[in-house]
Design a protein that fits this description.
transmembrane helix, transport, 17 helices, MFS_dom, Growth Hormone, Chain: A, 0% strand, cell membrane, 2 domains, mainly alpha, cell inner membrane
Length: 385
């Protein structure tokens, strides 16, 4: 149930991508104008997390899930009915803003369920969530074949309605009734606590750098596979699915062994593996080897990045008791913000090759390793977070 709630974000981002041109034609606008709805959605989501994260720490998680899913459902229905692009863009912002209220509390629930094994729970949620971006474009294409682009948003409306009913009937956690663990501080004070907590900054930076590397892959992979290597869109889709599969397997492996080894050790080992894979990616493309070398190297690189991201998040969350929502908001907002820098950075260093993409991913992974130097002594010794 928690993973299904988290999945509304990738579903909402990816399901309508195949319908971009159709939506543009419907509004008598350019595809470029409609593409702005993606950036607007990300901006609304980031602002929503900043707002609702501290609020969840004060009023509890369950009310925000209900408010978030209700608001998401109504705005999604409005998107299906709108006849003007300007209204469409405004509703995309509101949809993301309200929807974030439901998703920002999920890591807190996972922490409540799994306790010291939060990284294991986050791996399970992450594993299920990976299905959403993999399947969403295909689902969107199928729906588009059955009707027009509005049907995609009707389906999302129904999805959120079913989740709302499920939450209303089934979501009952001890923290929903206990008020003693809630924060009574102001929003700004909660943020101050998160940023000033000892030992948080290195792991928070690790989260952001993993996001930068991952968004670099998302941004550059279509260009690298289809333009640099000259592959078809069908082949690109298969290779993209392979990389998502690597992330899914990595999350599954992490969920099985993180309890034994601890998040800090898993983060360190994954960073070491990712560093080797990242430099191999640089060498493969420096010597312009065939595309399948890049494919082979990306599998362990992305898998390692998945383990790095999950464990960095878990370590940060475990450092807070009353400010879990605020910590989640900080992670999510900065992650999307830093991820948004990937496109401009790649454009700035554009060479017509895959090297800028490879260099950016390698730099991000190396910086994650440097961040861990600030957590010594004891990186390879399991400690209570």
């Amino acid at each position: 149930m928690l993973a299904a709630i988290m999945a509304i974000t990738p579903l909402t981002i990816d399901m309508y991508l195949p319908a971009m041109s159709t939506i543009a034609a419907s509004f008598h606008a350019s595809v470029t104008d409609v593409q702005q709805s993606l950036s607007i959605y990300l901006a609304g989501y980031a602002m929503g997390m900043l707002t609702f994260g501290p609020l969840a720490d004060r009023v509890g998680r369950r009310p925000l899930v209900i408010i978030g899913l209700s608001g998401f459902m109504l705005t999604t229905l409005g998107l299906a009915l709108t006849e003007e692009l300007s209204v469409f863009l405004v509703l995309r912002f509101v949809q993301a803003f309200l929807g974030s209220a439901a998703t920002v509390v999920i890591p807190g629930y996972v922490k409540e369920i799994y306790g010291d094994n939060t990284a294991k729970g986050m791996s399970y949620v992450g594993l299920i969530m990976l299905i959403a971006p993999l399947a969403a474009p295909t689902i969107g294409s199928v729906i588009l074949g059955l009707g027009n682009w509005r049907l995609i948003f009707y389906v999302l409306t129904l999805y959120s309605l079913l989740l709302l009913l499920l939450v209303t009937l089934k979501l009952r956690m001890p923290s929903d009734k206990a008020t003693s663990e809630r924060s009574h501080q102001s929003m700004l004070r909660n943020y101050a606590v998160v940023f000033s907590r000892p030992g948080v900054k290195p792991y928070l930076c690790s989260c952001l750098l993993c996001s930068l590397a991952f968004f670099s892959y998302l941004t550059a992979s279509p260009f690298v596979y289809m333009e640099v290597f000259g592959l078809s869109d069908h082949t690109f889709a298969l290779l993209f699915a392979l990389n998502v599969g690597a992330l899914a397997i990595a999350n599954l492996v992490n969920s099985r062994i993180v309890v034994k080894h601890g998040s800090r050790k898993m983060l360190a080992l994954a960073t070491a593996t990712a560093t080797v894979a990242a430099f191999a990616l640089l060498l493969v493309n420096y010597f312009t080897l065939p595309y399948w070398y890049t494919v082979i190297v990306l599998v362990p690189l992305l898998g390692s990045m998945g383990i790095m991201s999950v464990n960095s998040d878990a370590i940060v969350l475990m450092k807070f008791k009353q400010e879990t929502g605020t910590a989640t908001a900080v992670i999510g907002t900065l992650r999307f913000g830093v991820g948004a820098l990937a496109g401009p950075i790649l454009a700035l260093f554009y060479t017509g090759t895959a090297m800028p993409f490879c260099a950016l991913m390698a730099a991000a992974v190396v910086l994650v390793g440097i961040c861990q130097l600030f957590t010594f002594p004891g990186t390879f010794v399991r400690q209570a977070s």
